[in-house]
## 1
Amino acid sequence: SASIDIAVIAGDGIGPEVTAEAVKVLKKVTAAEGVELTLTDYALGAEHWLATGQTLPEETIQALRGHDAILFGAVGAAPGDTRIPSGLIEREMLLKLRFSLDHYVNLRPSFLYDGVASPLAAPGTIDFVVVREGTEGPYVGNGGVLRKGTMHEVATEVSVNTAFGVERLVRDGFRRASERPRKKLTYVHKHNVLVYAGHLWKRTVEAVANDFPEVSVDYLHVDAAMIFLVTDPARFDVIVTDNLFGDIITDLAAAVTGGIGLAASGNINMDRTAPSMFEPVHGSAPDIAGQQKADPTAAILSAALLLNHVGYPGAATKVEEAVAADIATRNPAAARTTSAIGDAIAAVL
Ligand code: NAD
Ligand code: IPM
Ligand code: MN
């Protein structure tokens, strides 16, 4: 019988506020579809570390492996919070999950909904997806420091790119491009300067392109890609890029499509050897936490990506349509609370 078993990691700051609304919507849509929904909460994040000293114990990773998918809110302390080492939770919990569960496709769709005010004067039709590598690059923690604290300090942060890792990501990008109407793939890097990793990416894209003759391919250096993201975002269809470039590109992509409160993502293990994890692109937003000011739409759209991944594309489409219907009625002059937005989207369902 139809059922979904989801682990919920609400996290810190606005994480619990926006996740509550995503859960509200998931309950509504699964009930309507006759799908049995099981939710298990996991306390993890900065607050959990402060209370217990634990980041992400091995037995928690094992327990998470038993679920169909993970719904994630956000983690992280406020910048300048001295009670917690900077980046500890981000590295030892969030990135550790992405790496341990082999979330190699970090999927970040960008869509400008009708009724959303873009900061761009003439945005055109924005409908692209960033396929960001999720397990390699400068994120792997391969670095070190010599003579720390002296005038002669040397710090390295080595970007690790493997043929295996780049190939599976690039192939996923081509597959997605081949299934979209425009069938266009743009790979973004900086191979004029990053000649080792950049050229591995370049050769990989050229090789995989042979298997997808229907997909048109172009390349942009990341700096120029940022120009076009602002001057002509309609040119993009599928963007494939490395972990760090993808992080930066997708915050700008969120801004041009009406704000970080709308941007959803999936950390996807396409081989399904472990559960995938779905989360808003944004962080814990300490500046607005606890005030019911956060927009839960990104979390709700992330739940739609989850439904799609676990085999309920019809339910996913219903959630996306409910979000689109709600967005079309939004009045920027009349701010709603986080839970009011969740209620409104659930009501459409
Ligand atoms: P952030 O995304 O948390 O906030 C940036 C700005 O966007 C803030 O002004 C915030 O109020 C606003 N914002 C974010 N989400 C919003 C929403 N749903 N509705 C309305 N406004 C929203 O980024 P930051 O300030 O750089 O990071 C804060 C903390 O979050 C840090 O500890 C950081 O490491 C962490 N972080 C975690 C994740 C994650 O868990 N996936 C992602 C990014 C940052
Ligand atoms: C994101 C975040 C994370 C990232 C951080 C918090 C590790 O910025 O999900 O975009 O850089 O991937
Ligand atoms: Mn980010």
## 2
Amino acid sequence: ETATKGGYEHYMYKEIHEQPGALRRTTQSRLNTHAGGVELEEFPPESFADVKQVHLLAMGTSHHAGMYAASLLNSRGIPAYAFMAGEYSVIKPPVTPDTLVVAVSQSGETADTLDAVRRARAAGARTLAVTNVVGSSITRECDDELLIRAGPEIGVAATKTFSSQVTALTLLTERIVEDVTGAKSPEARDLMEALSRLPGDVQEVLDTSMAREIAIEYEGSDAYFFIGRGAAHPVALEGALKFKEISYEHAEGFAASELKHGPLALVTPLSPVFAIFTGHEDEATLSNVKEVQARGAPVIAITSDRSGEVTEFADHVLRIPDTHPDIAGVLANVQLQLVAYHAADLLERPIDKPRNLAKCVTVE
Ligand code: G6P
């Protein structure tokens, strides 16, 4: 077992460090940085030309990747909705023949996601599986598949597969936009360049992260909160999910805009707040930072801080390289993976096999 952990104490830590390689495989031969386009050999030209709306169905971490993709698609004018697959199964699927249903599942075996996709298909939707596992059940249930190529993941808490899911879904988003509108999005060229730099940027986070110091500083807090807007909202949810899964500490993620509508009542000097800045809507998130600080909460900003303004207000900064705002969330998430890992490690939790949780849930 030591051998397969490659000298790391836990699979999770190993898999966090495997992300540069995983992302290289996810994007390999799919990026055309020269033309600013995406090349997905699975899909011939105009494959998505008829798509009018996109539904993303998934559970757990994969649902957060689905939310991320929905945020990008909506920002480019393609109506998109992320559903928890288990909830999609209790409604009449709101699909039309022009709906593309994207099922996101690392394992390809999650019962709720399989059930939801079957129902969507029966209702007439076209279905596409985004998965890590070749030949998994979801690839047989769906019309098409897009592999994320992250490599095997053993730790129960998903890490590298989230980064690869978000990256693959970002490529899919650009491809859908190109087919639907007949032109590349204005973001495409910069985004493809940023994606080609992403493995190196993740490596930089891994090499320079101060996450362990933050975990030590805030050990023993009452609760840990995570906030973000737009595509940083699912990153906040994912940061909290990782933290609670492996540390067993109380952690919650919120849309930064939601704070005033309830969560602010929970904020005290003993509830550090992790605030995610991606370069989109940073001003608004900064005003939320000031609100929680006024209640005495320490703030840890995850930011590349182009303006210097965030650093001025935050109590601590977990720095990420400057990149395209649409994928900055991947880098922020790596910092949050490391915070969760170190917090759980300090508490000597069984990181690779947290109590009551399974890598793959095959019952509804
Ligand atoms: C379980 C795992 C999570 C995972 C979720 C969905 O809850 O512990 O890490 O995100 O299932 O799994 P899937 O294989 O469908 O992505």
## 3
Amino acid sequence: MNTAPAKMHSTMAPPRLEIRNIRRFFEGRAVVDDVSLKIRAGQVTCLLGPSGCGKSTTLRMIAGVEMQDSGEIYVDGKLICDTVFRVPPERREIGLMFQDFALFPHLSVADNVGFGLKGSKDEKRARVEELLNRVSLKRFIDGYPHQLSGGEQQRVALARAIAPRPRIMLMDEPFSGLDNRLRDGIRDETLSLLKEEDTAVLLVTHEPEEAMRMADEIALMRGGRIVQQGAPYNVYTHPVDKAAVAFFSDVN
Ligand code: ADP
Ligand code: MG
């Protein structure tokens, strides 16, 4: 038997985020049932599936605000959570963005984006300006959330989530509250901003079209399980079963 250690190569580095065999039961029913996923830095993985299939519950366990009943979560190959050991949410270096993840109404745009940043006042200000420039909202730096449109607030929320340079970015249907006219622009802007940052993105959506547009990898979920996984084109052109065909063709 070859017992020599495997030679490490950069492409063999552990994934930024790995969840292994995660399960979560509610009232005796497995709402997340043996889910495993690997996400590399610089990649967007879409957890795609109909309402109620367990997407948000999966995200909450990764964020650490809910505990799995079995399975493990690793960041850069290091265990951060199993059923006995648990790194608390605030030490997971995870950025969150939800549809209704409101800005702090009493804080200026600058203070919203700078919230939770470490460093000197000048360093924080520089990072806030950099991000507001990137989302084309520098002119609102001293404004307040109520002065912004829904789309603008969403871009500030994105800037705020990215500002602390999270290792992992979790996004739960972040665009579903926006009207169609705005949505495509914000999706593209979000994607280009995320790709510049050294982060691994897990985007939850029930819209195949959004997954096709944004994902490097799609994990198709149904009834708590991942039923198919692969590059968007492959998943779309080779649906795993009739239910997957129906799900993809339901898009308007
Ligand atoms: P999705 O985000 O895909 O719409 P969720 O993860 O929110 O799905 O929910 C998956 C299933 O788990 C649903 O049937 C939901 O009703 C159930 N569920 C979620 N949270 C709880 C809870 N705290 N208690 C009981 N059932 C829950
Ligand atoms: Mg949900």
## 4
Amino acid sequence: NTHHLLILVGSSRRGSLNRQLAENVASIASAQGLRTTLPDIRALDIPIMDQDLEATEGIPAGARQLRQVLEDADALIVCSPEYNGFPTPLLKNALDWMSRPDGDIAGLDAFRGKPALALSASPGALGGLRSLALTRQLLDNLGMLVMPEKLSVGSAGKAFNADGSLANERQQHTLSQAISTLTDRLRRLQS
Ligand code: FNR
């Protein structure tokens, strides 16, 4: 049975560097025999968390859809820029809605016990490094098993080859290793 990886990107900007990183992750994962889903969060049209809206209309369809994909997935990889050192509102908002109970479904069911990996990219030198600890803490709060592997891609405007891989071979190797470690973890969890 093929393992399924959900990749969430904290930016839906046209030409997003984190989207590029996510697509690189997806192609590494496919090459390692994993199935991947890489949705565009903005296209799901998820409103800002509003508990009055939640009380009257329930969970927005886009958030419910994303929660369903996570339910089906074996692991989550987040690629997010940092905005003032924090993971983006686009990402946080989607995760917040996905964490809410929905009818018979308990809030954190889709998250609990699943391996998660946090990555970031930025045109800045640190690559969004400051947000990684916070993203990791958020995923931990959601009940996920946050992997120790991490990568922040700095100067990301010139970090990618034409084929989408990272020009820095050491970084590309780190990423590839992180994904195979994640796969090993999944195998051990499910054996
Ligand atoms: C940024 N950016 C940024 N970059 C960074 O390295 N550290 C930071 O704290 C911030 N803060 C920040 C705040 C806000 C409100 C914006 C809009 C941007 C720059 C950011 O990394 C850059 O725009 C990236 O290109 C965004 O990621 P995508 O869209 O390319 O994936």
